[in-house]
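Page 37, continued from 36.
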């Protein structure tokens, strides 16, 4: 399949875990970053993925992960930035400031540091061009005021993606996947779910597999860079 490993951040659960497992299913070598131990991490370990624990909410944590990746492999086929934090903006100013700093660290600072520190491994890939894929959100383009801190840092990540696409061409392609209602959170009640799906032209929760199919499409097409691919059942048309 791919001759060199693919790094996925936030691979311990939900979409990141699905991406890691599907890549393993298809014969890829996976380096899976995770923040805390889960059954999914144990499963990836058993399946032969290299698993690396680390926190991405500080610069030191992101740099430590980059160092661990360099110790694991001399080359990378791709880096998939899936790690994320999600919450509504808090009404208390100081709490909101803390949220903003954490969102910025995970959604923007960590990807910037990892891309910068691991660019040499991507350029060394035996399959060119290599890839960087940022998982963002439909809110990056059409923000929800109740989640303005989260939305703004996802939008910032998309802007960074455009910069990296120009900076790293032609050896590395850089793109975004912009999911919509893929996997509802446990906190989403039935009324909320129904309202979201009513605004989604395809009318259903997507599941994680469409994100994997989008990832494979970007990895396998050597003439796409600087793009943001919506995987949202058409919800961006109604937002």
């Amino acid at each position: 399949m791919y001759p060199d490993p693919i790094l996925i951040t936030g691979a311990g659960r939900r979409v990141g875990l699905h991406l890691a497992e599907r890549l393993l299913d298809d014969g890829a070598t996976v380096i899976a970053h995770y923040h805390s131990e889960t059954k999914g991490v144990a499963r990836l370990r058993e399946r032969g993925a290299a698993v690396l624990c680390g926190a991405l909410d500080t610069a030191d944590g992101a740099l430590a992960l980059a160092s661990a990746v360099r110790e694991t492999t001399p080359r990378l086929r791709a880096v998939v930035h899936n790690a994320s934090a999600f919450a509504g903006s808090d009404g208390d100013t100081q709490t909101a400031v803390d949220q903003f700093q954490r969102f910025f660290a995970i959604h923007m600072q960590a990807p910037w540091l990892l891309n910068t520190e691991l660019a040499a491994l991507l350029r060394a890939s035996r399959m060119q061009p290599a890839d960087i894929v940022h998982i963002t959100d439909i809110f990056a383009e059409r923000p929800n005021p109740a989640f303005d801190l989260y939305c703004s840092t996802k939008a910032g990540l998309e802007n960074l993606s455009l910069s990296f696409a120009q900076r790293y061409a032609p050896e590395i392609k850089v793109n975004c996947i912009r999911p919509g209602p893929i996997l509802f959170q446990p906190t989403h009640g039935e009324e909320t779910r129904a309202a979201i799906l009513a605004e989604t032209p395809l009318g259903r929760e997507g599941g994680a597999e469409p994100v994997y199919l989008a990832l494979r499409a970007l990895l396998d097409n050597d003439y796409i860079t600087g793009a943001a691919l919506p995987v949202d059942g058409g919800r961006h048309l109604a937002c």
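The chain has a mean pLDDT of 94. Flag for discussion at group meeting. The helical segments are 14-25, 39-46, 59-72, 93-123, 148-168, 190-198, 209-220.
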